[in-house]
Write a structure and sequence with these properties.
The chain has about 500 residues and is mainly α. The chain has 18 helices and 6 strands. The longest helix has 26 residues, at about 135-160. The chain is globular and about 60 Å long.
Length: about 500
């Protein structure tokens, strides 16, 4: 693969990538300090810092940015009463364009994180055995590759062809900064290669308590199965999902509520999650606040994310579905006055943290990025595409449905009907976990537009299965071009 360098949008992070570095002022010289990656502790700390880019405070990727920047453009969500930002409301109404600031942040923060992984890989790879234990060295390199793959997987699904950056910035020369877009196949090639390398990571059970939440072999294999599923490579998706099911030691919690129980964080179902710790230096999960109401004493929510009023998500659940009361709430008891307040309509409730009084932006509940229930559904979908709704496929989806307390899928389903059942099961199981937009668009423009228009979002069109390349990036980089779907829009 050709060695290329980072985009103009990521230059700013060079000043903060290694907080204790003293950077050279000569723009032609190396921009990454040689004074930090000197030993094992520093290598581990650097990679640990890169995990933080998933969920840093504020509107970071897995701390509300994917919600307001991506999931608003689905049939499940709409901008709530207190979502006053015009860019967010445009996404909800599907009137956004290349100037949308959420698109800029999705692009910028993803490349920021990719650059951090590139720096980690490059600097840790050259450490000697006297500086770092070789086994640990390979582990943290593979963790960095896992994170790089995750961010590229998001980028290529959002924007289509994107620049492929595989090494840290070494100078500010135009030929190194102005990188053209790579093909989607090339981007997926890097993703798959990185995840294959990361599949050599340890099993999650081998990690100490202090290392819980780091990438593992199961996380790499699960994400790779999802990559193959997205690409329509059913055979490899089934193979990887089956390997996770049979060999990695995960299982479903018996009670769906335990998936979002702070006492069960990083438990047997959690394959990889964004880690949050409320009331600890503002490291909390702001998703709880975004969906919580603002007019109940002691709740102090934003009420910025709402169920789409015409989408039918809440009503699509059976009344006896055990996920219903965990996923949504129709009323709350005030922690201040002890009174029950009924809500005008159901609201998202997965991340509401009862242990937090006041600011729900400090929820300690993790956001799942991939969990075991999804691996079962990946297997069910891939097996159906290969062989129809076989017993194996039905067993996988029925494991999820049994826990939810709903009827199992019968033997009478056709291949097409079973496919739709899997997608609806994903919709219900993974509500508010940043999955719906990806699921809609991987079925293609016709499917996406039909679902959005059925939900009342009449502005939906074929171009919305991609986001436009941010105008800021086009202005900065003369070698970038707009996605064909968004030219002259």
């Amino acid at each position: 693969m050709k060695k290329i360098h980072v985009l103009p949008t990521v230059i700013l992070i060079l000043l903060t990538a290694i907080s204790c570095s003293k950077l050279e002022e000569d723009p032609a010289s190396a921009l990454v300090s040689e004074q930090y990656y000197l030993n094992q502790d520093q290598a581990i700390a650097a990679v640990t810092g890169t995990y933080r880019k998933l969920y840093e405070t504020g509107q970071s990727l897995y701390n509300s940015l994917l919600q307001i920047g991506v999931e608003m453009a689905t049939d499940d969500y709409e901008a709530g009463p207190r979502a006053r930002n015009a860019h967010v409301r445009a996404l909800s109404n599907l009137t956004h364009d290349a100037s949308n600031d959420r698109m800029e942040q999705l692009w910028k923060q993803s490349y920021d994180a990719i650059n951090a992984s590139n720096v980690n890989i490059a600097k840790i790879s050259v450490l000697s055995a006297s500086q770092i234990d070789p086994t640990l060295q390979q582990r943290v390199i593979n963790e960095a590759k896992f994170l790089r793959a995750l961010h590229y997987f998001n980028l290529v699904r959002w924007f289509g062809p994107v620049p492929l950056v595989t090494s840290p910035v070494e100078s500010l020369s135009p030929q190194e900064l102005y990188v053209a877009k790579a093909t989607e196949d090339a981007v997926y090639g890097l993703i798959i290669a990185d995840l294959k390398s990361a599949s050599a990571l340890p099993n999650y059970k081998s990690y100490s308590e202090s290392d819980k939440g780091r990438a593992t072999a199961g996380a790499a294999k699960s994400l790779l199965a999802k990559v193959y599923l997205t690409r329509g490579d059913w055979a490899n998706a089934k193979l990887l999902a089956k390997e996770v099911i049979d060999k990695e030691g995960y299982a479903l919690f018996q009670d769906f509520a335990d998936v979002f129980n702070t006492g069960e964080k990083n438990g047997i179902e959690h394959i990889f999650s964004a880690q949050f710790k409320g009331n600890s230096g503002y490291q909390g999960n702001s998703l709880a606040s975004r969906s919580a109401p603002a007019d109940i004493p002691g709740i102090n929510g934003d009420y910025a994310d709402a169920l789409h009023s015409e989408g039918g998500l809440y009503k699509s659940f059976a009344t006896h579905d055990k996920r219903l009361s965990v996923t949504f709430t129709t009323g709350m008891v005030s922690p201040i006055d002890g009174k029950y307040y009924a809500l005008n309509k159901p609201q998202f409730s997965k991340y509401y943290d009862e242990t937090v009084v006041g600011n729900q932006g400090q929820s300690s509940k993790n956001t799942p990025i991939i969990r075991y229930a999804e691996v079962l559904l990946i297997f069910a979908e891939a097996e159906n595409e290969l062989n129809g709704p076989t017993l194996e496929a039905r067993n996988a989806i029925n494991a999820v449905r049994r826990r939810a307390g709903i009827d199992e899928v019968s033997v009478t389903e056709t291949k097409d009907a079973f496919r739709e059942l899997v997608f609806e099961e994903r919709r219900k199981e993974l509500v508010y976990e940043y999955q719906r937009w990806f699921d809609l668009v991987r079925r293609g423009a016709t499917y996406y537009v039909a679902k959005l228009k059925a939900a009342g979002k009449t502005n939906a069109s074929a171009r919305h299965i991609h986001f436009p390349t941010p105008q800021r990036e086009l202005n900065l980089n003369p070698n970038l071009s707009q996605h064909p779907d968004w030219i002259n829009r």
